[in-house]
Amino acid sequence: MTTPGPLVVAAAQVESVAGDVAANARTSAACVRAAADRGARLLVLPELFLPGYDMRTVAERPDDCDLRDDAIADVRLEPLRDAAAETGVLTLVGASVRRGPGRTISLLAVDDDVRVVYDKQHVCGDEAEHFVEGDSRSLLTVDGWPIGLAVCYDGCFPEHARSYSDDGALAYVASVAYAKGGEHRRDLYYRARALDNGIFSVVSGLTGHCGEGEFGGGTAIIDPEGRSLDRVPDGVAGLAVSSLDAGAVARTRAEHTMHADHRESLGPLVQH
Q1: pLDDT given at position 252
Q2: Which residues pair with 203 in a beta bridge?
Q3: How far apart are CA 197 and CA 161, in angstroms?
Q4: I need a labelling partner for 126 at 20 to 30 A (CA). Which of 56, 182, 201, 256 fits?
């Protein structure tokens, strides 16, 4: 694979309004323009940002919260679609997507188009009452950068990021919504996913109040050794922005060889 050039990424830490896709699309558009002003090519927004992460609202107001597979035709998304198209910032944003009788917690990719690019594979807690799990991973290529996509709980499973790194991913991008109180685990998961695989992690976290919940943020861009390149402090809105260097992946993997030394099997269990 040809080594791609630097990729400037931005991760947003913002507050979402439960059940108001139009308002959240306008907020997303403002984030797109702020990311463009800082030179970003890729922007990531939090989990379920468009409908708001609130299971009660999702249950009681599905018509307000859900998008269809043909989301490009949804007029509520026009400000976001226009901003992404005008600036050239490819934007990943969390959505509730209706497919027949089922719904998925999904990531939309928005530029001059709107398309579903990933469905969360590990739903957790009361999410399972309203959403079904996705059945496939998704590798998104941006300017030559293969990027593995994740939503929140996916990142708790080391094999999820590992599977992407085995398929050539140079970065693991996660859209998350961690309730306050989970800060230690939240930060550790994505640092570990970067260090485990010698790749970048990019995390966009929901902040503030949304419906009945309060969220702690956690937005950060993490290098292949698990160190923060940029992060947004908990409890405030803002952008983390950094230029990713593919050479850092090669250098880290040459020094810390866990990725290459991974064994397909540890053999049978011997009990003594």
Answers
A1: 93
A2: 174, 220
A3: 8
A4: 201
